[in-house]
Each structure stands twice: as C-alpha cells, then as structure tokens.
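Aim 2 progress update. The chain analyzed this quarter is reproduced below.
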Amino acid sequence: SLGGVLARSLGRERPDLVRRVVTMASPFRTYERGAEPLAMPSTAIYTRGDGIVDWRTCVDVEGRESVEVPGSHCGLGHNPLAAKIVIERLAQEVSWSR
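Predicted structure tokens:
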C-alpha cells in the first residue's frame, strides 16, 4: 500500500519515467491533499473489506479509474482478480501528452 503512495509521488516528480500508475490498497488520498493531479493514466484497486486502511482513502477522486475487488488488504497481493487488473492495465497502450 505504501508502494502505491511512493509510485504516485514518483509520477508527479518524474513523469518522464512513469507511463502509468497502478495502486493496490494504497491510501494515497491521506497523503495527497492539495497535490497536482497525475499527468499519466492511473488505476486504483481497492477493497471495502481492507481491514487495515480506510478503503475510501484508496479511491481516486480525480476522475481516474478506481476498481473495487473483494478481499482484504494483505490478500490483494494474492488476489487473482487484482492481478488480472494489474496485468491488463500495464499491457495497455498509453497515449497522452506530457
């Protein structure tokens, strides 16, 4: 989850190195108050049954993609549906202007 916060931060600091950000159970909204929107596509994977972080802090409100999956915070790394979403998003072509 903290890795997603770091990935989004890196996307803001070095958009030339990041083509897409995918987070899983990452409470980035807790840390990003007033932050600039990401310049690249992003997907936030979250679960209402998280049990560790408030799922509402893991949902992107910038109009980006947020995907709910069943499971727990620690279980997302082994969740086949979450893995499928990550694989599909990373395989997508990205076209946007920096």
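The two ends are 26 Å apart (CA to CA). The mean pLDDT is 93. These observations will guide the mutagenesis experiments scheduled for the next reporting period.
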